[in-house]
Specification:
The chain is of the alpha/beta class and 251 residues long. The protein has helices at 39-46, 69-74, 92-98, 108-113, 116-135, 151-164, 181-198, 209-213, 233-237, 240-247, and strands at residues 2-10, 13-22, 28-32, 54-59, 62-63, 77-79, 169-173, 201-206, 218-223, 226-231. It has 2 domains: 1-76 and 169-174 and 181-251, Rossmann fold, CATH 3.40.50.300; 82-166, Rossmann fold (3-Layer(aba) Sandwich), CATH 3.40.50.300. It is 39% helix and 23% strand. The longest helix is centred in the middle third of the chain and has 20 residues, at 116-135. The structure holds adenosine-5'-triphosphate (ATP). It comes from Thalassococcus arenae.
Amino acid sequence: MEMKNITLRFGGVVAINDISFDIREGEVRAIIGPNGAGKSSMLNIISGFYTPSEGEVWYKGAKRPPMKPFEVARMGVARTFQNIALFEGMTVLDNVMTGRLTHMHAGVFSQALWFGKARAEEMENREKVERVIDFLEIQNIRKTPVGRLPYGLKKRVELARALAAEPSILLLDEPMAGMNVEEKEDMSRFILDVNDEFGTTICLIEHDMGVVMDLSDRVVVMDYGKKIGDGTPDEVRNNQDVIDAYLGVPH
Ligand SMILES: Nc1ncnc2c1ncn2[C@@H]1O[C@H](COP(=O)(O)OP(=O)(O)OP(=O)(O)O)[C@@H](O)[C@H]1O
């Protein structure tokens, strides 16, 4: 995926200012930056929640026309949210099943009557979901309502739901925010395992620079809507503009 000269304005506010970068197939790509840098806005552009004021998004070698989020999802881009967006009253299993919605084709009529096509599809969806549940080690809470789970596990269920969609690109919005050290380590391991096992391309945004350095192949650094760094964790760590931005040196 390629972002070409993306600018995003909200009235007079320039949230993103002429930013270009790419996400290569199979990599773990991080977008980091201080508060208000424009990271969430960028993720919302990638996932189709926002349309850029200027610039182009290229996906699989073609320019992507303006699309609704569900159309972007159908093209294989799944995401999680900064504030967990799960159905609290539903079980873990049912929540993860909702991740399969983009893959369901059988009509409502045949589904209601449990006809052949719908039944085969349900079985296939169920198998995929069970695989993800095993993979993320949440078998023992499959039947637990999400509302009763601690925060770290909710985040893992959200990851499971996104993964159930079998995305080519998985977008993670601050997957480790609000977690304790142990939960952060677990989440990092799962993210790397997903990348290894399924070959899923991962793009995550994070506020905390430390967390993503071990995890990412390449990092984009944003500050005040601009790109101030782009490269391997080592390159970015030694970039003076990045160091200044994180130390709060005035512009
Ligand atoms: N819907 C909106 N309407 C108006 N301004 C917005 C909107 N969304 C974001 N902004 C502004 O755009 C800028 C970038 O915000 P954004 O949320 O993308 O940053 P961020 O890097 O994700 O920050 P954080 O780390 O705090 O989540 C900020 O100045 C913010 O106030």
